[in-house]
Amino acid sequence: MTASGTYAFLPTNGQCVIQAYRRCQIRTPELRQEHFDAAFMEMNLALVKFGNLQPNLWEVSLTTLPLVQGTATYTLPANTVMILDAYITTNSGSQQTNRYLTPFSRTDYASLANPTSQGAPTQFWFDRVVPPTINFWPVPDGNGPYTLGYYSVSQMQDSKLPNGSTPDLAYRFLDAFIAELAYRLACIYAPTLETQRAAAAQQAWNIAAAQDTEWVGLSIAPPLGRYYRV
After folding, report:
1. From 13, 38, 75, 224, which residue has the greatest number of CB atoms within 10 Å?
2. Smallest Cα–Cα separation from 43: which of 14, 22, 23?
3. For the residues 181-196, what does the mean pLDDT come to?
């Protein structure tokens, strides 16, 4: 057997669209400008759907943000979808110390009796406004400087048809993307295949999503330090 020796398979958005139409039994010579206009809209809506089925690990990145004494709320980039983990760093080098932050909800934040109290932050509320913000409690005090490190999931980049652009996807999700696009286009141009394409899209998503994970052990332990006797 002679393998290719390459790992470069990444079809363009245009090729994905043509393949999706083939799955709808619409051949390339039949395609008109209208077909590509619909495909442009549907492939971006497909990415919206994928973006809501989080987390998408290929869009996870680590960002750092210096905190300012007395400032509780910070604006994050508009393409921030969610925060997975966050921690506060003090000092640097061999003296660096990280403290993990736990998330809490809008209701928890609104329930604080002293929301402006200063100290070393221990909790954060990720407010999904546009653009999103992150709010700390306690509010950073003067014992820092504190630097926030957070792993966030970013919105996928827009899909465009011209100039050979490619979808902002990991390799393992290419089939799911084309299957989803074929289903959406079947709703418009091949309604008799809609149910079949929907089932294929769901199957492709399930396979890809099952692989989009970190293969590590799961440990669950109660915070025993918070228990006490009455």
Report:
1. 13
2. 14
3. 98
Q: Report the DSSP pairing between strands 123-127 and 97-103.
A: parallel
Write out 42-58 in H/E/C secondary structure: HHHHHHHHHHHCCCCHH
For 4-26, the pLDDT digits (tens) are 999 999 999 999 999 999 999 99
Whether the per-residue pLDDT at 138 is higher than 80: the answer is: yes
Tokens of 226: 């918070």
Round to whole Å and give the CA distance between 129 and 25.
42
Tell me how far apart the alpha carbons of residues 161 and 172 are, in angstroms, rounded to a whole number. Answer: 21
Enter the tokens of residue 74. 């910070």
134 and 183 both lie in a single domain = no
Query: The domain containing residue 37 runs over which residues?
Result: 13-55+157-211
DSSP conformation class of 84:
E
| pTM exceeding 0.85 | yes
